[in-house]
Description:
Helix content is 67%, strand content 4%. By secondary structure, it is mainly alpha-helical. The relative contact order is 0.14.
Amino acid sequence: xxxxxxxxxxxxxxxxxxxxxxxxxxxxxxxxxxxxxxxxxxxxxxxxxxxxxxxxxxxxxxxxxxxxxxxxxxxxxxxxxxxxxxxxxxxxxxxxxxxxxxxxxxxxxxxxxxxxxxxxxxxxxxxxxxxxxxxxxxxxxxxxxxxxxxxxxxxxxxxxxxxxxxxxxxxxxxxxxxxxxxxxxxxxxxxxxxxxxxxxxxxxxxxxxxxxxxxxxxxxxxxxxxxxxxxxxxxxxxxxxxxxxxxxxxxxxxxxxxxxxxxxxxxxxxxxx
Length: 273
Protein backbone atom coordinates (compact mmCIF):
# COMPACT_ATOMS: atom_id res chain seq x y z
CA UNK A 1 0.00 0.00 0.00
CA UNK A 2 1.35 3.46 -0.92
CA UNK A 3 2.19 6.07 1.79
CA UNK A 4 -0.63 8.35 0.62
CA UNK A 5 -3.16 5.54 1.09
CA UNK A 6 -1.77 4.83 4.57
CA UNK A 7 -2.01 8.51 5.53
CA UNK A 8 -5.59 8.87 4.28
CA UNK A 9 -6.52 5.65 6.10
CA UNK A 10 -4.93 6.88 9.36
CA UNK A 11 -6.59 10.30 9.23
CA UNK A 12 -10.00 8.77 8.56
CA UNK A 13 -9.56 6.20 11.31
CA UNK A 14 -8.91 9.06 13.76
CA UNK A 15 -11.95 10.92 12.38
CA UNK A 16 -14.08 7.80 12.85
CA UNK A 17 -12.97 7.58 16.50
CA UNK A 18 -13.88 11.26 16.94
CA UNK A 19 -17.36 10.73 15.47
CA UNK A 20 -18.29 8.11 18.08
CA UNK A 21 -18.37 10.45 21.14
CA UNK A 22 -20.00 13.21 19.06
CA UNK A 23 -22.80 10.86 18.00
CA UNK A 24 -23.06 9.55 21.57
CA UNK A 25 -23.40 13.09 22.93
CA UNK A 26 -26.21 13.82 20.45
CA UNK A 27 -28.10 10.65 21.40
CA UNK A 28 -27.63 11.43 25.10
CA UNK A 29 -29.00 14.95 24.58
CA UNK A 30 -32.04 13.61 22.70
CA UNK A 31 -32.95 11.49 25.73
CA UNK A 32 -31.93 13.81 28.56
CA UNK A 33 -32.59 17.31 27.16
CA UNK A 34 -35.16 19.16 29.24
CA UNK A 35 -34.95 22.71 27.82
CA UNK A 36 -35.60 24.12 24.34
CA UNK A 37 -31.99 25.27 24.20
CA UNK A 38 -30.65 21.74 24.76
CA UNK A 39 -33.21 20.20 22.39
CA UNK A 40 -32.12 22.64 19.68
CA UNK A 41 -28.58 21.22 19.81
CA UNK A 42 -29.40 17.51 19.65
CA UNK A 43 -30.22 17.22 15.91
CA UNK A 44 -27.17 19.15 14.62
CA UNK A 45 -24.86 17.12 16.89
CA UNK A 46 -26.36 13.79 15.76
CA UNK A 47 -26.18 14.90 12.11
CA UNK A 48 -22.52 15.92 12.53
CA UNK A 49 -21.67 12.59 14.20
CA UNK A 50 -23.35 10.52 11.46
CA UNK A 51 -21.76 12.64 8.71
CA UNK A 52 -18.24 12.27 10.13
CA UNK A 53 -18.74 8.54 10.66
CA UNK A 54 -19.95 7.84 7.11
CA UNK A 55 -17.35 10.04 5.41
CA UNK A 56 -14.49 8.61 7.49
CA UNK A 57 -15.62 5.04 6.72
CA UNK A 58 -15.74 5.83 3.00
CA UNK A 59 -12.23 7.29 3.12
CA UNK A 60 -10.86 4.49 5.29
CA UNK A 61 -12.27 1.60 3.22
CA UNK A 62 -11.56 3.35 -0.07
CA UNK A 63 -7.90 4.04 0.75
CA UNK A 64 -6.98 0.86 2.63
CA UNK A 65 -9.04 -1.70 0.70
CA UNK A 66 -8.62 -0.19 -2.76
CA UNK A 67 -12.37 0.43 -3.26
CA UNK A 68 -12.11 3.15 -5.87
CA UNK A 69 -15.75 4.27 -6.02
CA UNK A 70 -15.80 4.84 -2.23
CA UNK A 71 -12.61 6.89 -2.40
CA UNK A 72 -14.09 8.86 -5.31
CA UNK A 73 -17.23 9.55 -3.25
CA UNK A 74 -15.02 10.59 -0.31
CA UNK A 75 -13.13 13.06 -2.51
CA UNK A 76 -16.36 14.56 -3.88
CA UNK A 77 -17.66 15.13 -0.33
CA UNK A 78 -14.32 16.61 0.71
CA UNK A 79 -14.38 19.00 -2.26
CA UNK A 80 -17.91 20.14 -1.42
CA UNK A 81 -16.91 20.58 2.24
CA UNK A 82 -13.92 22.73 1.24
CA UNK A 83 -16.17 24.83 -1.01
CA UNK A 84 -18.80 25.19 1.73
CA UNK A 85 -16.25 26.22 4.38
CA UNK A 86 -14.67 28.73 2.00
CA UNK A 87 -18.07 30.34 1.26
CA UNK A 88 -19.04 30.37 4.95
CA UNK A 89 -15.74 32.01 5.92
CA UNK A 90 -16.24 34.82 3.38
CA UNK A 91 -19.88 35.17 4.46
CA UNK A 92 -18.91 35.35 8.16
CA UNK A 93 -16.46 38.19 7.52
CA UNK A 94 -19.04 40.10 5.44
CA UNK A 95 -22.03 39.89 7.83
CA UNK A 96 -19.93 40.65 10.94
CA UNK A 97 -18.21 43.66 9.40
CA UNK A 98 -20.78 46.13 10.78
CA UNK A 99 -21.66 46.89 14.39
CA UNK A 100 -19.78 48.08 17.46
CA UNK A 101 -20.55 49.11 21.01
CA UNK A 102 -21.22 52.73 21.97
CA UNK A 103 -18.85 54.07 24.63
CA UNK A 104 -20.73 55.83 27.44
CA UNK A 105 -19.23 58.69 29.39
CA UNK A 106 -18.34 57.66 32.94
CA UNK A 107 -19.35 54.04 32.37
CA UNK A 108 -17.12 50.96 32.24
CA UNK A 109 -19.47 49.15 29.86
CA UNK A 110 -20.71 49.80 26.33
CA UNK A 111 -24.24 49.78 24.97
CA UNK A 112 -25.31 48.24 21.68
CA UNK A 113 -27.92 49.25 19.09
CA UNK A 114 -29.64 46.71 16.86
CA UNK A 115 -29.64 49.02 13.84
CA UNK A 116 -25.84 49.08 13.75
CA UNK A 117 -25.60 45.44 12.63
CA UNK A 118 -26.06 43.87 9.20
CA UNK A 119 -29.62 43.47 7.90
CA UNK A 120 -29.16 39.69 7.62
CA UNK A 121 -28.31 39.36 11.31
CA UNK A 122 -31.12 41.73 12.30
CA UNK A 123 -33.66 39.60 10.45
CA UNK A 124 -32.50 36.48 12.28
CA UNK A 125 -33.08 37.95 15.77
CA UNK A 126 -36.25 39.84 14.80
CA UNK A 127 -37.87 36.56 13.83
CA UNK A 128 -40.15 35.74 16.78
CA UNK A 129 -39.50 31.99 16.69
CA UNK A 130 -35.73 32.48 16.55
CA UNK A 131 -35.72 35.06 19.32
CA UNK A 132 -37.89 32.97 21.66
CA UNK A 133 -35.39 30.13 21.28
CA UNK A 134 -32.42 32.44 21.90
CA UNK A 135 -34.17 34.03 24.86
CA UNK A 136 -34.84 30.59 26.32
CA UNK A 137 -31.12 29.80 26.04
CA UNK A 138 -30.18 33.09 27.73
CA UNK A 139 -32.53 32.42 30.63
CA UNK A 140 -31.42 28.79 30.96
CA UNK A 141 -27.79 29.92 30.80
CA UNK A 142 -28.41 32.38 33.68
CA UNK A 143 -26.46 35.14 31.95
CA UNK A 144 -27.63 37.68 34.54
CA UNK A 145 -27.11 35.45 37.57
CA UNK A 146 -23.75 36.96 38.57
CA UNK A 147 -25.32 40.45 38.63
CA UNK A 148 -28.30 39.28 40.70
CA UNK A 149 -25.92 38.02 43.37
CA UNK A 150 -24.34 41.49 43.76
CA UNK A 151 -27.23 43.17 45.54
CA UNK A 152 -24.85 45.17 47.73
CA UNK A 153 -23.12 46.82 44.77
CA UNK A 154 -23.35 50.62 44.83
CA UNK A 155 -24.39 52.58 41.75
CA UNK A 156 -20.88 53.98 41.21
CA UNK A 157 -19.34 50.50 41.45
CA UNK A 158 -21.91 49.09 39.01
CA UNK A 159 -21.35 51.87 36.47
CA UNK A 160 -17.62 51.11 36.55
CA UNK A 161 -18.16 47.44 35.71
CA UNK A 162 -16.95 46.00 32.40
CA UNK A 163 -20.12 44.14 31.45
CA UNK A 164 -20.27 41.66 28.57
CA UNK A 165 -22.40 42.69 25.55
CA UNK A 166 -25.19 40.31 26.61
CA UNK A 167 -25.14 41.53 30.22
CA UNK A 168 -25.20 45.14 29.08
CA UNK A 169 -28.09 44.58 26.68
CA UNK A 170 -30.21 42.01 28.54
CA UNK A 171 -29.60 42.46 32.29
CA UNK A 172 -30.12 46.21 32.74
CA UNK A 173 -32.19 48.98 31.14
CA UNK A 174 -30.70 51.30 28.51
CA UNK A 175 -28.71 54.20 29.91
CA UNK A 176 -30.93 56.83 28.27
CA UNK A 177 -34.00 55.54 30.13
CA UNK A 178 -32.59 57.39 33.17
CA UNK A 179 -33.99 54.82 35.59
CA UNK A 180 -33.03 55.04 39.24
CA UNK A 181 -30.51 52.38 40.28
CA UNK A 182 -31.51 50.13 43.20
CA UNK A 183 -29.43 47.00 42.48
CA UNK A 184 -27.78 45.57 39.33
CA UNK A 185 -31.04 43.95 38.19
CA UNK A 186 -33.59 46.19 39.93
CA UNK A 187 -34.23 49.70 38.59
CA UNK A 188 -37.03 52.17 39.39
CA UNK A 189 -38.78 53.97 36.55
CA UNK A 190 -38.71 57.69 37.34
CA UNK A 191 -38.69 59.31 33.87
CA UNK A 192 -41.64 58.54 31.59
CA UNK A 193 -40.67 61.14 28.96
CA UNK A 194 -37.62 59.23 27.71
CA UNK A 195 -39.53 55.95 27.82
CA UNK A 196 -41.78 57.13 25.02
CA UNK A 197 -38.80 57.56 22.64
CA UNK A 198 -37.07 54.29 23.53
CA UNK A 199 -39.19 51.14 23.40
CA UNK A 200 -36.67 49.32 25.59
CA UNK A 201 -37.65 51.49 28.54
CA UNK A 202 -41.19 50.08 28.46
CA UNK A 203 -39.88 46.57 27.84
CA UNK A 204 -37.77 46.57 31.02
CA UNK A 205 -39.08 44.54 33.99
CA UNK A 206 -37.63 43.91 37.44
CA UNK A 207 -38.92 40.33 37.15
CA UNK A 208 -35.75 38.20 37.14
CA UNK A 209 -37.15 36.04 34.32
CA UNK A 210 -37.89 39.03 32.10
CA UNK A 211 -35.45 41.91 32.81
CA UNK A 212 -34.59 43.27 29.33
CA UNK A 213 -34.82 39.97 27.43
CA UNK A 214 -37.50 41.53 25.19
CA UNK A 215 -35.43 44.65 24.50
CA UNK A 216 -33.81 45.63 21.22
CA UNK A 217 -30.60 46.21 23.18
CA UNK A 218 -30.63 42.55 24.24
CA UNK A 219 -30.85 41.45 20.59
CA UNK A 220 -27.97 43.82 19.81
CA UNK A 221 -25.91 42.36 22.66
CA UNK A 222 -26.49 38.86 21.31
CA UNK A 223 -25.43 39.98 17.82
CA UNK A 224 -22.26 41.57 19.21
CA UNK A 225 -21.48 38.26 20.89
CA UNK A 226 -22.19 36.38 17.64
CA UNK A 227 -20.01 38.84 15.73
CA UNK A 228 -17.09 38.22 18.06
CA UNK A 229 -17.56 34.43 17.98
CA UNK A 230 -17.99 34.26 14.21
CA UNK A 231 -14.78 36.18 13.61
CA UNK A 232 -12.93 33.64 15.77
CA UNK A 233 -14.64 30.77 13.94
CA UNK A 234 -13.69 32.31 10.59
CA UNK A 235 -10.01 32.38 11.60
CA UNK A 236 -10.21 28.74 12.74
CA UNK A 237 -11.95 27.89 9.45
CA UNK A 238 -9.01 29.28 7.47
CA UNK A 239 -6.63 26.96 9.35
CA UNK A 240 -9.05 24.04 8.91
CA UNK A 241 -9.38 24.81 5.20
CA UNK A 242 -5.63 24.53 4.74
CA UNK A 243 -5.72 21.17 6.54
CA UNK A 244 -8.64 19.92 4.39
CA UNK A 245 -6.90 20.96 1.18
CA UNK A 246 -3.82 18.99 2.23
CA UNK A 247 -5.95 15.93 3.08
CA UNK A 248 -7.83 16.32 -0.21
CA UNK A 249 -4.53 16.43 -2.14
CA UNK A 250 -3.27 13.29 -0.39
CA UNK A 251 -6.64 11.64 -1.11
CA UNK A 252 -6.25 12.44 -4.80
CA UNK A 253 -2.85 10.71 -4.73
CA UNK A 254 -4.43 7.67 -3.06
CA UNK A 255 -7.19 7.64 -5.70
CA UNK A 256 -4.57 7.73 -8.47
CA UNK A 257 -2.68 4.87 -6.77
CA UNK A 258 -5.86 2.77 -6.63
CA UNK A 259 -6.47 3.33 -10.35
CA UNK A 260 -2.89 2.39 -11.18
CA UNK A 261 -3.10 -0.78 -9.04
CA UNK A 262 -6.44 -1.73 -10.61
CA UNK A 263 -4.94 -1.19 -14.06
CA UNK A 264 -2.00 -3.45 -13.23
CA UNK A 265 -4.34 -6.18 -11.97
CA UNK A 266 -6.49 -5.91 -15.10
CA UNK A 267 -3.51 -6.54 -17.38
CA UNK A 268 -2.37 -9.45 -15.23
CA UNK A 269 0.80 -7.80 -13.82
CA UNK A 270 1.47 -7.90 -10.11
CA UNK A 271 4.22 -5.83 -8.55
CA UNK A 272 6.75 -7.53 -6.35
CA UNK A 273 6.37 -6.93 -2.62
